[in-house]
Specification:
84% of the residues lie in helices and 0% in strands. With 446 residues, it is an all-alpha fold. It has one domain. Helix 10 runs parallel beside helix 13. The longest helix is centred in the first third of the chain and has 37 residues. The radius of gyration is 21 Å and the shape is globular.
């Protein structure tokens, strides 16, 4: 499968590579879905709102981790495609050490300023205490979250998407069992859901690190040429990782600002929004994974100097995305109310369910715009064309924020949903224009 990223039919290579990524990220979403399902049904909609209002903060830190991981993976993929295996190993060790140090620092800062963050988000007093407990425990898990994300990105950069799938499946099942035990069984409340996620993520990180260490032994290299912390390679990776982290952070900051706006409309509206965004996250995940596969495909083929093959991969990815879009929209329209009802007790909050269904019915129709934006952005990222990659993302979320804040008061809170596809249109227009110019082909990273 590794060789097929630079040889063979692009459609087949992308399909075989992307499917385990899709399944793996669905299981990763289960971490958060199970938290919400158990909390919403075992404790109540206020507890669900407390977990939900913490979600954008959590996503901000995950986005930093994901951004660095994806950016570093581009360099590792290009080194792998160009067969510079000594440098590839050095890059892997370097980014692992750097990520561990950064995550420990962020965990300390998060615990210290946890309450300040929630106050800035205008979290209602009725759910503040639960949100504070949930978020503080999550901050303690950041070293595990960061370590696992970078390990996952390294496996993908090497063309192996099956190993991350295995660990995600195992850790997700453990997370489910611990959620039920801690929350429904022992009555630990939202703290139990947070501890369940921390334990599951920690085990996944340790096992992934062990397997990667064994895997790297199969690549025959000159040990004298390998350094465990290479400043030069760290600088190369930062050129892609930092813009990618900023891009991911822009996404999460946009979510934080939208969450602050949503928090003004009460706990029922927050609970409905939370349930809808959980489903939203699962629905768009296959498209995100297709994009990540395209990014790895692009990076490996640019490293192997097969530029024209990148275009073939982009076209194949586009048709795969369209097929996924049709299935997702059909499922959301047929079963959207049932999906929302799974998170919220129907007898306790009809208003919350109506809010969630309204969100899904509007946003899901435009998922193809998200898929198109994500796909072309992934080509730019894989090529290392980070400036336009960032501009497209920033423009998309700036459009969303401006429309939501300026028009919600005039046309009603539902404008928050309509602002999302508007942002996708703006972002795609910028990114696709850059793709058509062909300037991304001229970027040289390794």
């Amino acid at each position: 499968m590794n060789r097929n990223m630079i040889n063979g039919k692009p459609m087949r290579a992308l399909f075989l590579f992307a499917i385990p990524m899709v399944l793996g990220n669905i299981f990763q979403q289960i971490y958060h879905i199970v938290d919400s399902l158990v909390v919403g049904n075992a404790i109540g909609s206020d507890a669900l709102a407390a977990v939900g209002t913490s979600a954008p903060v959590i996503f901000l830190f995950i986005s930093c981790s994901t951004g660095v991981s994806l950016g570093s993976g581009v360099i590792i993929s290009q080194l792998y495609g160009s067969k510079q295996l000594e440098k590839m190993k050095s890059a892997i060790y370097t980014v692992l050490i750097a990520m561990l140090g950064i995550s420990i620092l962020l965990a300390i800062l998060g615990v210290l300023f946890n309450g300040v963050i929630l106050n800035l988000l205008n979290v209602p007093s009725g759910i503040f205490s639960d949100a504070n407990v949930y978020l503080k425990i999550y901050f303690l898990s950041l070293p595990f979250v960061f370590s696992y994300n970078i390990l996952n990105a390294i496996f993908n950069a090497l063309g192996d998407s099956k190993i991350p799938l295995c660990f995600l499946m195992a850790s997700s099942l453990l997370n489910v069992a611990l959620d039920v035990l801690f929350v429904a069984g022992l009555g630990f409340g939202v703290a139990g859901a947070a501890w369940a996620t921390l334990i599951a993520q920690g085990i996944a990180a340790f096992l992934s690190g062990y397997v990667l260490r064994k895997r790297l032994r199969f690549y025959q290299t000159d040990k004298k040429e390998i350094t465990f912390f290479n400043i030069g390679l760290l600088g190369q990776m930062c050129k892609v990782a930092i813009p990618s982290m900023i891009q991911q952070s822009i996404v999460s900051l946009g979510m934080l600002l939208v969450q602050a706006l949503v928090n003004q409309y009460g706990s029922a509206f927050i609970a409905g929004y939370t349930a809808a965004t959980k489903i939203d996250g699962i629905a768009i995940m296959p498209m995100i994974n297709i994009g990540n596969a395209i990014s790895t495909f692009t990076a490996q083929n640019i490293g192997a100097k097969k530029i024209e093959r990148v275009k073939e991969g982009y076209r194949s990815g586009f048709f795969m995305m369209l097929g996924i879009y049709v299935m997702i929209v059909t499922a959301v329209f047929l079963f959207g109310d049932s999906f929302i009802g799974a998170f919220i007790n129907q007898n306790s909050s009809v208003a919350a369910i109506d809010t969630g269904v309204a969100y899904l019915r509007i946003v899901s129709v435009f998922y193809f715009l998200f898929g198109a934006l994500n796909l072309v952005n992934s080509v730019l990222r894989g090529a290392g064309d980070m400036l336009f990659f960032m501009i497209a993302t920033f423009s998309s979320f700036l459009t969303r924020i401006i429309l939501a804040y300026t028009l919600a008061g005039l046309f009603g809170k539902e404008i928050i949903w309509w602002s999302i596809p508007a942002g996708w249109v703006v972002g795609f227009s910028i990114a696709y224009t850059r793709y058509l110019t062909g300037q991304w082909k001229k970027k040289v990273l390794v």
